[in-house]
Sequence to fold (422 residues):
Amino acid sequence: MAQNDHLTLQDEELGRKGKQRIDWAWRKMPVLQRVMQEWEKTQPLKDIRIAACLHISAKTANLARVLKAGGARLVLCASNPLSTQDDIAAALNVVYGIPTYARRGVDNDTYYRQIHAALDSEPQLTIDDGADLVTTLHEKRPAQVGQVIGGTEETTTGVIRLRAMAKDGALKYPVVAVNDALTKHLFDNRYGTGQSTMDGILRATNYLLAGAVFVVIGYGWCGRGIAARARGLGARVIVVEVNPFKALEALMDGYGVSDMKTAAAQADFIVTATGDIHAVGKEHIPYLKDGVILANAGHFNVEIDISELEAQAVSRRIVKDNVEEFLMPDGRRIFLLGEGRLVNLACGEGHPCEVMDLSFTNQALSAAWLVSMHGRLQPTVYKVPPEIDERVARMKLDAYGVKIEELTDEQRRYLTSWEAGT
Ligand SMILES: NC(=O)c1ccc[n+]([C@@H]2O[C@H](COP(=O)([O-])OP(=O)(O)OC[C@H]3O[C@@H](n4cnc5c(N)ncnc54)[C@H](O)[C@@H]3O)[C@@H](O)[C@H]2O)c1
Fold:
């Protein structure tokens, strides 16, 4: 067995199953399809070594195929120990020949060994989701940092970490905040997380949402999507926020808004989407109702204070796939889905293909942009260039067969002048 083989899945039968799902997703990824056709000819990533730390799903496999078609020498690892879909990891290894260090349910130590295995490929570009790859590279393998041209970051939490690194002078190469592209967070975080969070909760519980009290903590892009989809299924939604503008927005969007203790005392379901630590914390646990379902849609498993839940409980046990019960001394049972990891990936298949078509086209085009700008960028966090963002939106509209209006010259002049008034 070659070094690191134990960190990968090489099962042929599993790989064949994974390929079917990758092909199925590809049907609804027309923008990436277009990029692939173009890149097979233009090869913008020719011989560039890329390490990508992403949720190993069918959509990610299709991004990997596109990067490889563009000439990249690509290695993948998982961005979360519980989000890997094993059949997809196997397919990437045995069908597509893309080394993929990922297995569902590995422990923390193995998770980081997989990241190190990906970094052994000496990447010139990093593609990250949550910034574990970038921080491991900077902290544990500083000698390698000099050969990196740049990186891209997929999610809100990762962008927050990278901006903090840049502020401290710790970031040593340019990174593009893919999350901040309009064609990313407006669709992926909102519609993607919205739908797939419901999907994960329903697969894990099979419970009815109609009539249930559904608490969403955090009314950012993800929270807005989750609240809208929960309402669509008939739940009575209560939003908990710390930001007064977002709280006001939730109120005028027609939701109940309250502080956490009040919401906790009513909730049948609670979903965190804050990117923050202990949104469900020690002080809230005594207020939770018997039978409440807790789930997290934020990036890390820190949003629900699981150690505190365990400390207050008399027992903790798995009651079915992806559902754990915490029995409290007063007899209340509190249920946690997917070990408090992103529920849409831990208990479901992650975002729908159509939104990942947008997010991953931004990833691919931003990677090629970094290569084209080699030597001209600073070690800081960059926006996705607006022309890339707009191109992605236009390609998606085109794929849907939707035509939009164009400004006339007269309108363009009017909208950039000040002379004409009442
Ligand atoms: N599950 C997924 O597939 C998926 C997809 C995209 C993003 N994410 C992750 O979801 C998280 C949220 O992302 P976003 O784009 O919605 O971020 P956002 O910044 O748009 O929204 C977060 C909101 O949470 C609020 N908040 C922070 N701490 C809070 C607290 N203790 N109580 C109540 N509200 C609080 C903030 O005021 C903000 O409005 C991040 O960790 C992000 O990386 C997950």
